[in-house]
Design brief:
Chain lengths: 297, 265
């Protein structure tokens, strides 16, 4: 109870500094919006042959249809209109597009996690895999995802696979790597004494794995999952770009840039960031609960 | 009783002859053990003492089949160390308790039993019995972090006893504990040894600990690791802590110290 109250107090105490930082960021954002959009406002005024006062100039920069940098309130209004005020099945709803991206993200993240764990198990238990696979994993991540994503989409399309799975595969491609690297480290985290101890009991490799290596690797797994889930979202968004922008947050970004709809681009960007923060947050909660129950937190 | 039976009953549990182990390192070979010959009879409490690098831990690890000797032979219960390990002939207590934080004390003590395929009922029965032996009854449901260092090490001894091996190998099990806790655990270990009659091999840095606990003290010296003296203790089996102030005790401790000094020259 006391602990709980202390946590709440600590939470409130950190609220002050956090809100100061947020306010400062918004301040900079507004200043930047005025500065970047002022040229267009002046051009317009010059063509209409009117003289703008300073307050009129500022008001104009913060309410343009296609500003170079939309002001925060414009983005907020756009997000509100495309989430709360649209049916979720509407093509103009951000929730609809967010769900398209989220489903690809989650499928890709799941496959990437399984693939990463399997690779790590192979690397830890097999000398040949340890020597041969790791360099390939690192090479795979040096290829820019923007270069390889269109090829994956096109190749899979030509064999009849389209929609969710190709995007999920790009998510997999990005998320398996942190999981594999983290799990190799995690499965190797038991020290020599703990492994000797297993040997004194003549434990099999499978017993050593399930009773020692796997539980020991949990803190490493969750750290990797946090990176992996964020990378999955990036993968899903990138995977939506070459499909001709049918649906998804990536499609909103692309469509926005086609038509100069900067407000739409920014609202999709902010939504993607919020989605990523939520996903990482959920993994973090699962991590805390699991590790506390295991006595490792 | 036939003479054969008498001979069997006194046959050594552990017998090493001409045992050598050389580690190849980048700076050349290191002779961890050189020509060590030693017999240990059933029920003995044997301490190995010497400075670091004298091979006392290495000897224990060879017996446990954790290291392979490069020369000589060693037998455990008449078998090779590997056969003895597979036959679960010994329990090994390491310097650190090494309890798993995600398992309760009962779960930790039962871990080797799980690995060895004991039934759930038998596991519970054995865990309860060995926890009582180390005076940790009632702590089965606690997690390791809820116990002091000394209690954790007692739990690790219980774990080594759980599967009824008749040899107990202990590698500086109390090295990381403070002296007061160490004294108590030494007393309890002696009582445990008297009750169970297990052949115990005990590696230590401490002269009083070695003299207090042992029926036989093996003094070793480094570079190359070898046995410089084997002392049969004249102390009685009943040993209260204040036996350490008696002249016999001091005489044995003196001889150990002399052996250690001789090995250094």
């Amino acid at each position: 109870m006391a602990l709980c109250r202390w946590r709440v107090m600590r939470g409130l105490a950190s609220l002050g500094p956090v809100s100061v930082v947020v306010l400062v960021l918004f301040g900079f954002w507004y200043l930047a919006a005025v500065w970047l959009n002022a040229d267009w406002a002046r051009d317009k005024a010059a063509r209409a042959d009117v003289e703008l006062s300073f307050s009129e100039l500022v008001a104009d920069t913060l309410s343009q249809d296609k500003p170079k940098l939309p002001a925060p309130h414009q983005v907020a209004v756009e997000i509100w209109e495309t989430t709360a005020e649209k049916k979720v099945t509407s093509k103009r709803s951000l929730v609809y597009h967010g769900w398209i991206t989220l489903s690809a993200t989650l499928l890709g993240f799941g496959m990437g996690t399984v693939l990463g764990i399997l690779l790590a198990i192979g690397i830890v238990h097999n000398r040949a895999m340890n020597n041969s696979v790791m360099p390939w994993l690192i090479t795979s991540q040096t290829i820019p995802i923007l270069a390889i994503a269109p090829m994956i989409i096109v190749v899979l399309n030509s064999v009849g696979l389209s929609g969710l799975l190709p995007k999920a595969l790009i998510s997999t491609y990005l998320s398996f790597f942190p999981v594999a690297v983290g799990m190799v480290k995690g499965l190797r985290s038991p020290d020599a004494m703990q492994l000797d101890q297993m040997r004194t009991w003549s434990a099999s490799a499978a017993q050593t794995f399930w009773k020692l290596r796997w539980p020991s690797s949990m803190p490493y797994l969750f750290t990797s999952l946090k990176i992996g889930v964020a990378a999955s979202l990036v993968g899903a968004i990138v995977g939506e770009l070459p499909t001709g922008a049918v649906a998804g947050l990536g499609a909103r970004l692309l469509a926005g840039s086609y038509y100069g709809q900067t407000v739409q681009i920014w609202s999709a960007l902010i939504s993607a960031a919020v989605l990523a923060a939520c996903l990482v947050g959920i993994v973090g909660v699962v991590q805390r609960v699991t590790l506390r129950r295991m006595g490792m937190a | 009783m036939s003479s054969v039976a008498v001979e069997e009953s006194t046959a050594p549990v552990i017998s090493a002859s001409g045992l050598s182990l050389t580690f190849e390192t980048r700076d050349g070979p290191v002779h961890a053990l050189k020509d060590v010959s030693l017999d240990i009879a059933p029920g003995e409490f044997v301490s190995f003492i010497g400075p670091s690098g004298c091979g006392k831990t290495t000897f224990l690890r060879v017996v446990a089949d954790l290291e392979q000797p490069t020369g000589g032979t060693v037998s455990v219960n008449g078998m090779s160390p590997e056969e003895a390990r597979r036959a679960r002939a010994y329990g090994y207590v390491f310097q650190a308790a090494g309890l798993y934080p995600w398992r309760t004390i009962g779960g930790n003590v039962g871990l080797p039993l799980e690995i060895m395929g004991y039934s759930k009922a038998e596991r519970a029965e054995r865990v309860a019995r060995v926890l009582e032996l180390v005076e940790l009854s009632g702590f089965a449901g606690k997690f390791p972090w809820q116990l002091s260092g000394g209690m954790q090490q007692r739990a690790s001894i219980a774990r080594a006893l759980a599967f009824d091996a008749d040899i107990l190998l202990m590698d500086e099990p109390f090295g990381a504990l403070d002296e007061i806790v160490r004294d108590r655990l030494n007393e309890e270990l002696l009582a445990l040894w008297a009750r169970t009659g297990k052949t115990t091999l005990f590696v230590t840095h401490s002269i009083p600990e070695a003299v207090y606990l042992s029926t036989k003290i093996v003094v070793m010296s480094p570079r190359p690791g070898r046995v410089t003296d084997v002392i049969e203790s004249p102390l009685p089996k009943e040993r209260p802590l204040d036996i350490r102030d008696t002249s016999e005790f001091i005489a044995v401790a003196h001889r150990v110290r002399e052996g250690l000094r001789a090995g250094h020259e």
